[in-house]
Design a protein that fits this description.
The structure is a homodimer of 208-residue chains.
Chain A (H helix, E strand, L loop, with lengths): L1 E3 L10 H10 L8 E7 L5 E7 L10 E6 L3 H8 L2 E8 L4 E12 L6 H13 L2 H5 L30 E15 L6 E7 L12 E6 L2
Antiparallel strand pairs in A: 1-9, 2-3, 2-5, 4-7, 5-6, 6-7, 7-8, 8-9
Chain lengths: 208, 208
């Protein structure tokens, strides 16, 4: 079964099963954790856990936070493609989300992105904020005292704080529960683009 | 703190904290699920959940199972590098395991690999075995009846069944519990190779 989503909706059709999964797994805080794969400058894959921070404004772009000192920054500068793998343990379903990353840094000049970065900084916990004042990640271990810096300004994000956006072009949703299992592919059509809120998606039920 | 592991041990030093994590999270069946990132033929990253099936014989290679009809097969033929991201929800720790994949298929001529493939087939559940007799993955959805094929031979693996091995060269272990968090890097030294059971690893405590 292949069908086109209604072109008048700005919400991509994979958002509905994803919202349903988030709701049904909401009792488990780690249900907002997913694994983000990127490609290193030496062309090997990199894979790490990130925390889903909601969608950017009225788009279908996932938001994460990132430290400008992490290796992701260099990787994204060279290759924006990324695939997130999001497994929900309670409902036993997986979303694979392929797309392109945008890193919003302190020097971003686009007002809406810069504002979103600031708002996200203000919304995260004190302990999450503190990590951006910690010593250089992956440098030889600093003394414990270096991990108790003064609390950073809760209003103005430090230069190390980045907003990371993932704009999705393909989604592969696999539900392991059910006999037989179900699997659905979502593909954004080429006519869609970031400036067009009326994205068109092709939705296809496939074999698991 | 940087130190060399004892060269006389065949067990890599990251195996100890990993075994500890598996033990402490053993009440949760999904603690054996991890996310494996590879690179697609179009150079975008791919990322999916796989199930840890133990270590291959007396090596430090992780075992997974794979369907020869899945896209992983083509990806591995072109690029063997992969990174597994393994997050343990109960103990809040992450292992990033970078290495090279080996796909052991029905036509593998190495006896020890071929035997391991057969043994793994015999050890998995009936329902796991049945999936290798299901219709072509990702093809347009087949009727439900196609997902109830006759049970495959439990002794002899079908041609679709593959053993997937991940030989590790780098590990990044991050423990989020603890104040401050701890992070440790393990790197296999170039002098080590698969035929030498006495792998040498460099272990370095770094900033989280």
């Amino acid at each position: 079964m292949t069908s086109l989503s209604t072109p008048s909706t700005a919400i991509a059709p994979w958002r509905s099963p994803l919202a349903h999964a988030l709701h049904r797994n909401r009792s488990l805080p780690f249900s907002r954790y997913l694994q983000l794969a990127t490609i290193r400058c030496d062309h090997t894959p990199a894979n790490r856990t990130v925390v889903f921070r909601g969608f950017f404004a009225k788009t279908n772009q996932l938001m994460f936070i990132s430290d400008s000192r992490s290796e992701k920054t260099d990787q994204i500068a060279q290759q924006v493609a990324a695939e997130a793998c999001w497994y929900f343990t309670k409902t036993r379903e997986q979303f694979r989300l392929l797309g392109d990353l945008t890193l919003v840094t302190a020097s971003s000049e686009q007002t809406n992105l810069s504002d979103a970065r600031t708002q996200l900084w203000q919304s995260i916990s004190d302990s999450a904020r503190l990590q951006f004042a910690w010593p250089q990640p992956k440098a030889p271990r600093s003394p414990d005292s270096a991990f108790s810096p003064p609390a950073p300004d809760a209003q103005i994000p430090p230069s190390t704080f980045c907003l990371l956006l993932l704009a999705i072009s393909k989604v592969d949703h696999l539900a392991l529960r059910g006999d037989p299992q179900s699997r659905c592919l979502y593909e954004k059509l080429a006519s869609s683009n970031a400036s067009n809120p009326h994205e068109q998606w092709q939705v296809t039920a496939v074999n698991p």
